[in-house]
Automatic annotation (TrEMBL), chains A, B:
Record key words, sorted: Amino-acid biosynthesis, Branched-chain amino acid biosynthesis, Cytoplasm, Leucine biosynthesis, Magnesium, Manganese, Metal-binding, NAD, Oxidoreductase
A cellular component term, taken from the record's GO annotations: cytosol
Protein name: 3-isopropylmalate dehydrogenase
Organism, as annotated: Methylotenera oryzisoli
Chain's role: Catalyzes the oxidation of 3-carboxy-2-hydroxy-4-methylpentanoate (3-isopropylmalate) to 3-carboxy-4-methyl-2-oxopentanoate. The product decarboxylates to 4-methyl-2 oxopentanoate.
Entry's EC annotation: 1.1.1.85
Residue ranges of every copy of the Isopropylmalate dehydrogenase-like domain listed in the record: 2-347
Pfam families on file: Iso_dh
Top enzyme category: oxidoreductase
Family per similarity comment: Belongs to the isocitrate and isopropylmalate dehydrogenases family. LeuB type 1 subfamily.
Length: 351, 351
């Protein structure tokens, strides 16, 4: 098994180092090779996705990513910015299925800004389409109109097969969970998402056991706050998924705990924390590595089909939490504040 | 002063009746004329925005709208559905500036699913662009691709003047509030919103006293949950505004309390509650009319420039709440549960 390790920017390198430590402690037959991406790619090779990095990622079975982005690259031309490396690797590897769990850890319940009874036991799986929609649709760009004014354009596009394949991922996951899929669209206004809804309804015929519901995106944004436990699996397009998955993750109050997986048709995947690169705290050994470590668990589950080791990692994280270890972002009075590196050690010890 | 009264569907007629009662009690020199819109427009004239209704609205100084939509119209062709009437009247009247306050009433603080300390004193004004963006951009539709598959398309478009005029509304409102504007975009991915950000920055030079910040829409969806009180005025495009304004309104826990205004360049406006038509409770005299009554206050403030009467209405609503009157949606143990009509009477009495 070959893993491409792409630490990226900001806190990326330090959190990835902890995840690598955990992977090594599992003593599996894997090889890991590191390469730069994002701002680090730009520094190393003048490109947020250097050719050698893309080649490595293409040849690997799975990619472990830290995070990309740093304000210091904000002034670069658009195609050189760190985010573009991330968007391109998703597209090049055809990682169309982005899985973002929003899970509340009982030990961390008080970190949520929502009342405990509203979020206790929260366990939502958001399935976001990742290689289509307005993120990639042509035409796009900023141009001059006849009257001399600038106009900005982006295009939301979805075709049937794109919708069907992400729908399938959602239904398949729901079959292993509570058998409920909520498809989120804006079918009352946007034709692209009207097609989305039609295809989801067609597809649902193949999954008679799964209960399919539909929700407009504005209502979904409300319901996540009003009664988030009504959801099991949510499936939606790229831009709505971007917004709703971040909203859902914040319900838990500890985004430093949430992993993500981005899969292609063959379960090759890229695994990364749901949070960003947090350049303000980079290099200080205070970042929370647990989301990245839990991304390794997702890698074991989805790409390597190794449920046993996936659960071993997840249980080790739970044990470290139960033992009172906390990084600064999830620390509360009475628990044991540790750094990024020490948290990695605590998880390894708990394995 | 001429007001076009468009009750619409579902609970629309009963909540509008209460707002009309309040308007009459103010004893101003106004004339009101009623006309159907939405499903009611379709029933009356085969069109969710009948020509006569549009004419009336165009000739009026302000429009008071209830709500549109009912599941029973879901099977109609797209252009006949109630929502289309709403979208068309916004466009026809050039109501580009949608103001949606998210305000927490101290008496109703416990209705929020967020912890009291997170939302107490919440007072955000969301300024949403309402006649552009992917809601109206061409090309749009569902068509067949060469391989026989269907594809859905919508187009996000913004030009400089559209951005500048909504920006101005936001800055002007901020000048009367806490002088902070947060502009929400997805400039790291979407060029249309990269232009949005540039124009907001250019415009801010004219408002040296206002502090302008920028936030990506995914982060804004998180920050509204993490620390909503950081916001004063938020300004954003049509689709992001649709999502974020609903999210923000739900922070208060009482969407039945939130009014909205949609203004053109001359402060002609359409005023309506932020909530929907709730067909499930229509005709039962249990709907909350306060959002519609508070929309009348916004009408007095923004279109009729009558701050004194606007505050009179707002104070009457507060007094009715302080006296313990509650409709079912905001009722808690110990308060006095009343119906829609009785709540209207309570506000009139408090005037
Ligand atoms: C960094 C950005 C391009 C990216 C996205 O919008 O997809 C991020 O927000 C995410 O959700 O992974
Ligand atoms: C009903 C619908 C077309 C409308 C919108 O999306 O603008 C509504 O959600 C709103 O926010 O007023």
């Amino acid at each position: 098994m070959k893993i491409a390790v792409l630490p990226g920017d900001g806190i990326g390198p330090e959190i990835v180092a902890q995840a690598v430590k955990v992977l090594k402690a599992l003593d599996l037959d894997i090889s890991m090779t590191e390469a730069p991406i994002g701002g680090a790619g730009y520094e190393a090779a003048g490109d947020p996705l250097p050719e050698a990095t893309l080649k490595l990622a293409k040849e690997a079975d799975a990619v472990l990513l830290g995070a990309v982005g740093d304000w210091k690259y904000d002034k670069l031309e658009r195609h050189l910015r760190p985010e573009r490396g991330l968007l391109r690797i998703r597209k090049e590897l055809n990682l169309f299925a982005n899985l973002r769990p929003a899970l509340l850890y009982p030990e961390l319940a008080s970190a949520s800004t929502l009342k405990p009874e509203v979020v206790s036991g929260l366990d939502i799986m958001i399935v976001r389409e990742l290689t289509g929609d307005i993120y990639f649709g042509q035409p796009r760009g900023i141009s001059k109109l006849e009257n001399g004014e600038r106009e900005g354009i982006n295009t939301m596009r979805y075709n049937e097969s794109e919708i069907r394949r992400i729908g399938r991922v959602a239904f398949d996951i729901a079959m292993k969970r509570n058998k409920k899929v909520c498809s989120v669209d804006k079918a009352n206004v946007l034709e692209a998402t009207e097609l989305w809804r039609q295809v989801m309804i067609e597809l649902s015929a193949e999954y008679p056991e799964v209960e399919l519901s539909h929700m407009y995106v504005d209502n979904a944004a409300m319901q996540l706050i009003r009664a988030p436990k009504q959801f099991d699996v949510m499936v939606t397009g790229n831009i709505f998924g971007d917004i709703l998955s971040d909203e859902a993750s914040m319900l838990t109050g500890s985004i430093g705990m949430l992993p993500s997986a981005s899969l292609d048709e063959n379960n090759k995947g890229m695994y990364e924390p749901s949070h960003g690169s947090a350049p303000d705290i980079a290099g200080k050994d205070i970042a929370n590595p647990l989301a990245t470590i839990l991304s390794v668990a997702m890698m074991l589950r989805y790409t390597f089909n190794d449920e046993a080791n996936a659960q071993r990692v997840e249980n080790a994280v739970k044990k470290a939490l139960a033992q009172g270890y906390r990084t600064a972002d999830i620390w509360t009075e009475g628990s044991n504040k540790v750094g990024c590196n020490a948290m990695g050690d605590a998880v390894v010890a708990a394995l």
